[in-house]
Amino acid sequence: VCITFTEFGKMQNICNFLIEKLDSSVVISQPQFYHTPSSVENLRRKACLVAVENARRKAQEVCNVVGQTLGKPLLIKEEETKEWEGQVDDLQSSRLSGSLTIQQKIKSATIHAASKVFITFEVKGKEKKRKNL
């Protein structure tokens, strides 16, 4: 029987339950980790959105320093996106000996993403507050 889990915690709970109830009549293999194309695409999209948020925050800070007001974005361009699987210390030696722990397998299968964006914002003069008389 092959079962696909989307949450590691649920997988552990069910495996523990099966081992408890069925004892030695059940053999549970080590988990195999993989990422669906849609989950990788979601990760890329989130990385881009975070990069845009960071750029806007930095631009806002610069405007505050120079006494200007940040306007609307005039141009947003994603220049680079990359993703990579996480690495574990001594991963090579652990693989050679065949003794990767579950935590090491999770770390090595974890995908990270980065996005580099170029954004041009409109910059306005500091708006003066009006007083109602």
Automatic annotation (TrEMBL):
Assigned keywords, A-Z: Cytoplasm, Kinase, Nucleus, Phosphoprotein, Receptor, Transcription, Transcription regulation, Transferase
PANTHER family xref list: INTERLEUKIN-1 RECEPTOR-ASSOCIATED KINASE 1-BINDING PROTEIN 1
Superkingdom of origin: Eukaryota
Biological-process GO terms, alphabetical: immune response; positive regulation of canonical NF-kappaB signal transduction
Main location: cytoplasm
General function of this protein: Component of the IRAK1-dependent TNFRSF1A signaling pathway that leads to NF-kappa-B activation and is required for cell survival. Acts by enhancing RELA transcriptional activity.
Stated family: Belongs to the IRAK1BP1 family.
GO cellular component terms, A-Z: cytoplasm; nucleus
Location of this chain's protein in the cell: Cytoplasm; Nucleus
Keyword Transcription carried by entry: yes
The protein's name in its UniProt record: Interleukin-1 receptor-associated kinase 1-binding protein 1
MF terms in GO: kinase activity
